[in-house]
């Protein structure tokens, strides 16, 4: 049974492309491919389609292997990038390998092509499984570190895909009810645009805490300090939030602000009383102070 393989060919020669595809089919691959010759064509192909491997010529009239490698690296894809050229010297090949290419072959000796791709695909799968294991370990560590906090997983559509019991207890609803809803229904302070900004910051590994309020099922507001983390888990982009209930601290801060404001008003009114010569002027000053300083 032939193995499916999606190949992006960075190659200016159609004849050389046909030779590569013929060798891949001879090696047992069921090949789908696109040939590109320019930086923009390659960039568009990487953005629009998922590929198993990139095969790139080293020297082309309007492009180069190094430039193609740079486009590949900026795409952040973890797939094999292999140089296949008829004009690459040993020094240039070493330079390409150091820059991030996985292997190189000469066009006059393509018999190794199938074996090289097989090996690189296996190593890519090993790297992928290692990343998944590392992500799982990080998620487990998060759970341990934040066991007493409300934990929520949110997908790109802002749908809640996981909550722990602390989250349900905080909001006064069941986990099942939360899993069928969107986070926007519980955090009225954050608009869709605000969430888009949170996504971008988390995706760029910008560590931030957000203080916001949530609407509980009984209509009450709770104040939360939310730590947001971005993960790509099994190909799915998620935000994982860890929330601390800071309602008591928030209420205490508000009460302190109210008391400080009241003290400021009393102090200013006392000063107005000392300065006053006329009763009407005193009343005007006191009204102004209550508005300006007392809110």
How would you describe this protein?
The protein is built from 10 helices and 10 strands. The protein is α/β, with parallel strands linked by helices and 295 residues long. The protein folds into 3 domains: 3-124, 3-Layer(aba) Sandwich (Rossmann fold), CATH 3.40.50.2300; 146-245, Beta-Lactamase, CATH 3.30.450.20; 250-292. The protein has a 5-stranded parallel sheet with strand order 2-1-3-4-5, with helices on both faces. Strands 7-6-10-9-8 form a 5-stranded antiparallel sheet. Helix 3 links the parallel strand 3 and strand 4.
Topology:
Elements: E1 3-10, H1 14-26, E2 29-36, H2 39-48, E3 53-56, H3 65-74, E4 81-85, H4 90-99, E5 103-106, H5 113-145, E6 150-155, E7 160-163, H6 165-171, H7 175-179, H8 192-203, E8 209-215, E9 221-233, E10 236-245, H9 247-275, H10 279-292
Parallel strand pairs: 1-2, 1-3, 3-4, 4-5
Antiparallel strand pairs: 6-7, 6-10, 8-9, 9-10
């Amino acid at each position: 049974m032939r193995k499916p393989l999606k190949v992006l060919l960075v190659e200016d020669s159609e004849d050389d492309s046909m030779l590569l595809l013929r060798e891949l089919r001879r090696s047992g691959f069921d090949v789908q491919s696109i040939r590109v010759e320019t930086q923009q064509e390659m960039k568009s192909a990487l953005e629009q389609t998922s590929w198993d491997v990139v095969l790139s010529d080293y020297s082309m009239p309007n492009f180069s292997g190094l430039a193609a490698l740079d486009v590949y690296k900026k795409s952040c894809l973890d797939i094999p990038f292999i140089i296949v050229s008829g004009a690459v010297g040993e020094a240039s090949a070493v330079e390409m390998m150091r820059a991030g290419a996985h292997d190189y072959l000469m066009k006059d000796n393509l018999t190794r092509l199938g074996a090289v791709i097989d090996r690189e695909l296996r190593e890519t799968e090993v790297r992928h499984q290692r990343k998944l294991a590392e992500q799982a370990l990080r998620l487990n560590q998060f759970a341990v570190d934040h066991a007493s906090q409300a934990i929520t997983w949110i997908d790109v559509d802002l749908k809640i895909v996981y909550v722990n019991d602390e989250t349900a207890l905080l909001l006064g609803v069941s986990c099942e009810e939360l899993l069928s809803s969107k986070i926007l229904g519980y955090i009225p302070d954050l608009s869709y645009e605000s969430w888009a900004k949170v996504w971008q910051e988390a995706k760029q590994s910008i560590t931030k805490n957000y203080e916001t309020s949530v609407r509980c099922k009984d209509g009450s507001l709770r104040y939360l300090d939310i730590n947001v983390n971005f993960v790509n888990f099994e190909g799915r982009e998620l935000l994982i939030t860890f929330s601390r209930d800071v309602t008591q601290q928030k209420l205490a801060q508000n009460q302190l602000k109210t008391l400080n404001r009241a003290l400021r008003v009393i102090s200013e009114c006392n000063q107005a009383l000392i300065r006053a010569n006329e009763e009407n002027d005193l009343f005007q000053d006191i009204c102004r102070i209550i508005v300006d300083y007392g809110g």
